[in-house]
Amino acid sequence: MASWQTSVRDVVRSALVEKVDRNHEETDRAFLRRRIVVVVTLVVGATLLGVSLSVSPGDSAFYPLTIGLAAAWIIGGFASGPLHLGRITFNGSMRRPIVTPILIGLAAGAVFVAGALVVRQIPPLADFTENVLAHARFGPLALIVFITLLNGVAEEIFFRGALFAAIGRKKPVLISTIVYTVVTLASGNPMLAFAAITLGFVLALQRRASGGILAPILTHVAWSTVMVFVLPPLFVS
Q: Quick count: other Cβ atoms within 10 Å of Cβ 2?
């Protein structure tokens, strides 16, 4: 196998497969408290998500609702208990995951863009996608980008942070991905749910491997950046 292929394989294994050593043990009382906070936040967040995406594109209520949604995920995430940034092995040493997660996010964005080229040829799926992108066609671009990236960070703080920790040791990748997808279904848009289950699985693998939320945050932000700048022009009539 070529050296570059070996290097790529090692980077992928470090980012998504191999778990670093860590000690994130909690007392039974703290674990129960985390689970209670997570359940309450899930109800509040799912409700706000459904309401925010039900408003008409261009409605000024969309912006405070989505900022409120991000606030709910962030407050619930930190209120649940300690969160960790995480580390991965790179060139034989333990480092904060920065470059690799960004590259994974950009690669995921490229895959979604390629998929969008197919989806726009299928009217029902194109309509669902357009319903989401319609919100990005109104208001200042800087505000849209801010809200998009803020919610990406907020979701990782909660779903790959608080929720993942609240699940425990049994199948946290699978369970957190399912919960993330079910909550996203509150939007009523199956295309968002598809994005949640595919991207969410990759983010959960990063969380398991690194033991923290930094890698999922950077991947989500990179992916969201591609989505907010590249996807809307693809669906212009």
A: 7
DSSP-assigned letter for residue 188: -
What's the alpha-carbon Rg for the chain, to the nearest Å?
18
- Is 140 in contact with 196 (CB distance < 8 Å)? no
In sign, the C-alpha dihedral spanning 64, 154, 201, 172 is: negative
* CB distance 46 to 93 below 8 Å: no
For the question of whether the overall pTM of this predicted structure is more than 0.90, the answer is yes
Are 228 and 112 a contacting pair, CB within 8 Å? no
Are the C-beta atoms of residues 41 and 73 closer than 8 Å to each other?
Answer: yes
Helix axes 214-234, 190-210, angle to 10 degrees: 150
Q: For residues 187 and 197, give the distance between their C-alpha atoms in angstroms, rounded to a whole number.
A: 14
Q: What is the pLDDT of residue 58?
A: 80
For residues 197-217, average pLDDT: 96
Query: For helices 99-119 and 123-133, what crossing angle results, to 10°?
Result: 130
Q: Rounded distance, CA 173 to CA 159, Å?
A: 11
